[in-house]
Design goal:
With 205 residues, this protein is mostly helical. It is built from 8 helices and no strands. Helix 5 crosses helix 7 and helix 6 crosses helix 7. The protein is elongated.
């Protein structure tokens, strides 16, 4: 009998403590003690920083939806000159290539491609080495394949942009660069956008 009463007393006290805790929780502004804060609050990472910018995709992996394989290695620079752009470049593609170039490449090479971007500014910027001049000089001999290769693996002081630009975007940037160089394909010589081609087909009927 005494044992039963002790059990009932303990149960009543536990129930009262539980109800008190629940009622107090509605107005309690103090959080409970966190046992493992590093698991409770995840550490935030900025995607584009010095460490992550140099990261390359794992060798042999293909991004979901990727349909343009590229099998050359970093050392295959001579072969890269022979690689043709697999995309059928449209005027819209050149426009997108320009947009991507200004975002990712213009900071060093300049929007005029003269190697005088904001990071260099004729030697007055924070970057001491002059970026490559893509508008004139020896780099104009680079084919779209070589430009794509440089963006994929990096070259000299320039790091890889494979983690920032997918394969299709890199080909568009390469096509845009060549279109702005002397003797390069001009927008009028490039295949028209699909929408405009469809419109012409409908108009012909």
């Amino acid at each position: 009998m005494k044992r039963t009463s002790n059990i009932l007393i303990v149960a009543a006290l536990a129930t009262g403590a539980f109800l008190a805790a629940c009622n107090r929780g509605e107005h309690n502004r103090k959080p409970g003690r966190i046992y493992m804060p590093d698991m409770y609050e995840s550490r935030a990472y900025e995607f584009y920083n010095a460490r992550l910018a140099g990261m390359k995709p794992v060798e042999g992996t293909v991004k979901r939806g990727e349909v343009l394989p590229y099998h050359l290695k970093e050392s295959d620079t001579a072969l890269a000159n022979l690689v043709k752009n697999p995309l059928t470049i449209t005027a819209a593609d050149l426009k997108e290539g320009e947009r991507l170039f200004n975002i990712y490449c213009g900071i060093c090479h300049g929007t005029a491609m003269d190697g005088n971007g904001p990071l260099y500014r004729g030697g007055d910027g924070p970057y001491p080495a002059a970026p490559a001049n893509l508008a004139a000089g020896p780099k104009t001999a680079y084919t779209e394949g070589r430009l794509f290769h440089v963006m994929t693996y990096g070259y000299n002081a320039m790091g890889s942009y494979a983690s920032q630009l997918d394969r299709e975007q890199r080909w568009k940037v390469a096509a845009y660069i060549k279109s702005k160089q002397a003797g390069g394909a001009k927008p009028a010589e490039v295949a028209p956008a699909k929408d405009s081609a469809a419109a012409k087909s409908v108009a012909a009927k």
